[in-house]
Amino acid sequence: VGGYGAVYRVEPLDAPGRSFALKLSLHPDPARALREMALLLDRAWHPNVVRVHATGRWPDPVEGLPYFVMDCVEGMALHVWAETVNPTFRQVAMVGGSVAMTLGVLHSRGVLHRDLKPEHLLIRTRGQVPVLIDFGAGDQAGAMTLTTTTLPPGTLHLRSPEAIRFQQRHWRQPELRYPYSAADDLYALGVCLYRAVTGHYPFPPGQEPELLAVAITERLPPSPRDINPQVPEPLSRAILGLLEKEPEHRPRTGEAAHSELMRGLLSGGAAAFEAHLFDEIPGKPNQIRRPAWPEQPYLTPAPRAVPLT
């Protein structure tokens, strides 16, 4: 059960044993649920996006709560997969590259996820294929805004620096809406991949919100390789590139992000990608040792250039 709805595992009466996921809107205003249905049935269709099979309303077919039936994805969230399966860096780079390409296709259609986080990135048990889920906060070009706050629904430690700066500048103007863009989705992908390869978020969510906002906007996170020395240098650089403070310094498209994530695999240092993410605890098979988070993790970024007036 989430803020806007509940998801149930269901089976057809005439085909027991065949599982689907049914998402039922519990919000009094069905607009967001209807937007998510429209996205998944039309512009957001993609092999790496959860597929919708049926829609309707319950209990009344006209006035009832909207629901839709979709694939029941058998797999784990990205961060759980990373620490349970302990895949190789090659597998993580391939997953990250696949998600980047998926985002590139969605963005080219005017679709934004707007709530990308490890829990919304499932890795199928069969084939280790990533699947994007939960477009409840999603948006598409030309659609009427459903956001009633300055920022769209989301999670603070996955928000981009520019989104937080917008809120800091305009908190006295609640009628303004942040112009969320593809750069925000790609930043969130960087956060997800950082969490996968280090076991930590670049800006830990346990901090006070005010301090967390300052860290995201003003501090440079440690390199993934500084946290986990096994991370191949090209992959570490690619992840940091997605976390650049200024959106114009990040890859401009999902395709460009894919190229950066794949660069190391196509170079002479590809052997480093065959290592597993984490060391195992001696004498405890299949239990990983998560790298420690440094006591003084942050560096202050170079000051931004201020145009002369």
Overview of this protein structure:
GO terms for molecular function: ATP binding; protein serine/threonine kinase activity. Keywords: ATP-binding, Kinase, Nucleotide-binding, Serine/threonine-protein kinase, Transferase. Residues 1-261 form the Protein kinase domain. This is non-specific serine/threonine protein kinase. InterPro entries: Kinase-like_dom_sf, NEK_Ser/Thr_kinase, Prot_kinase_dom. It is a single chain. This protein is α+β, with helices and mostly antiparallel strands and 309 residues long. The chain folds into two domains: 5-71, Phosphorylase Kinase, domain 1, CATH 3.30.200; 75-279, Transferase(Phosphotransferase), domain 1 (Orthogonal Bundle). The chain is built from nine helices and eleven strands. It has helices spanning 31-41, 78-85, 89-108, 161-169, 182-198, 209-218, 224-227, 233-242, 254-263, and strands at 5-10, 20-25, 52-58, 65-71, 75-77, 111-112, 121-124, 130-132, 139-140, 279-280, 288-289. The chain has a four-stranded antiparallel β-sheet with strand order 1-2-4-3, with helices on one face. A three-stranded antiparallel β-sheet has the order 5-7-8. Helix 8 (233-242) packs antiparallel against helix 9. The radius of gyration is 20 Å and the shape is globular. 37% of the residues are buried. The model has no long low-confidence stretch (mean pLDDT 90).
Quickly list its features.
alpha+beta, 309 residues, Phosphorylase Kinase, domain 1, three-stranded antiparallel sheet
